[in-house]
Amino acid sequence: MHVYTHRPQISAAVANIKKKGLKIGFVPTMGALHRGHASLFDFAQKNCDVVVVSIFVNPTQFNNPQDLETYPRDLQADLAFLEGINPEILVFAPGTTTIYGANVKSLDFDFAGLDSVMEGAFRPGHFEGVATVLKYLFEIVQPDLAFFGEKDYQQLQIIKRLVELEKLPVEIIGCPISRHEDGLAESSRNQRLSKQHREAAPFIYKTLMQAKALFNDKSTSEVEAFVENEFKDHALFNLEYFEIANASSLAHASEKKENEHYRAFIAAFADDVRLIDNIALN
Ligand code: AMP
Q: Does 233 score more than 90 pLDDT?
């Protein structure tokens, strides 16, 4: 398995791949790899000649220092996981200085409101951090295609906008959410759940499914009230937000319009572990 930690080495490898005319598929991650990530590697493998996976816990996208500190990190376990999937995968696991130099700061972007709702509203600066690291990573890895999960649906929309804004020569591919058998969306944060919270966590997806079932016949505010009520008395989960939004503009859907697609988005705390999920409603 080829693991690169510094720019000159990965740049030489990328130049060599480009010289051969091979197509690079890129999957950026923050490590603590799981089957959700593996589903993206699979899409990349099927659509590209060479797969590059980055493992980098990006400090600028954490609005909460404690979340950054407790984010699970185990590079050896991640490399073993990747080796088991395909030893041909190229891994880029840089340190913070390799990406940011001495200036660990986000750049400014105009995401035309996509970043002012939901995750953007509750995690100030989060998407600037995400966009900044991706701009740098795209410059280094020079992918033809880059694969992102719909698990972070708002992030996916923002990355598409970033690529337009910066005219980056990469195609962004969205991939479906991978779930545990009980419905809980796979996430690196799940390993921090207590046994009790883990057992109860399918409640989040179950509530999203109920919202979807209600969506046809009820108004969006009725569906939102239903979900808020489900969480109100729950002993284990605290709802941060539940929102029904237009699937492309992410604008809050106060009414349903014909020929528009809608999605429901949720963020909830299990103790101090913040979980997010979302579902297509129509
Ligand atoms: P992360 O390591 O959490 O930054 O995630 C890296 C990529 O994996 C992002 O594009 C995520 O959206 C994607 N991802 C994380 N969890 C899942 C999942 N359960 N299903 C599909 N994609 C996922």
A: no
